[in-house]
Design goal:
By secondary structure, this protein is of the alpha+beta class. The protein has one domain: Syd protein (SMI1/KNR4-like, 3-Layer(aba) Sandwich), CATH 3.40.1580. The chain is 36% helix and 28% strand. It is built from five helices and twelve strands. The chain has a seven-stranded antiparallel β-sheet. The protein has a three-stranded antiparallel β-sheet with strand order 1-3-2, with no helix packed on it. The radius of gyration is 16 Å and the shape is globular. Its main location: membrane. It is a peripheral membrane protein. Belongs to the Syd family. Keywords: Cell inner membrane, Cell membrane, Membrane.
Length: 186
Amino acid sequence: MNASRSDLISALQQFHRRHFQSYQQQHHQPPTVEHDSDWPSPCEQGEVKNGETAHWQPVPCEPPLDFANIEQALELELHPDIKTYFGSFFCANLAAQASDGKLELLFPWSPEDFERLQENMLGHVWMKRQLRQQETVFFAVTDIDDVILSVVNSTGEIWAEKVGKKPHRKIAGSMTEFITSLEPVV
């Protein structure tokens, strides 16, 4: 595993741990999620309570999730940070605070959700190509309407962009730098 991949995995693990600890301190129990029998996840822990909620925690993907099909469809090699970020853990989406405001980090919840995520990635990159804009892959939504956070595929930089528009503001030089700067919101 190269240094960049291991650094990003470590940053994600630390953020997951801080989020989990903050949740437990505030709610006196592990994080819960509304159970959906149509979308089971390896993240769900123990029994579903009252048929409605389950405790959950991030679960490493072993082996890491594969992006060969999307790369082949796009005829594009995805930036390694994109593959590491989305391919290393099954996890619920997580709220966070960045220096510029609140956001929600998007993660695949299950293998089926990973397939849906890949379809959304394909649509996003194809839209960027039709608009003759640099290729980006979104990974977070913000509390500002229509503003998402994306990885610029060619550089790995993190940028804010309005849906359908060119990235308009650089947020961080890398995914590791960005994840390390976040504070959990529970």
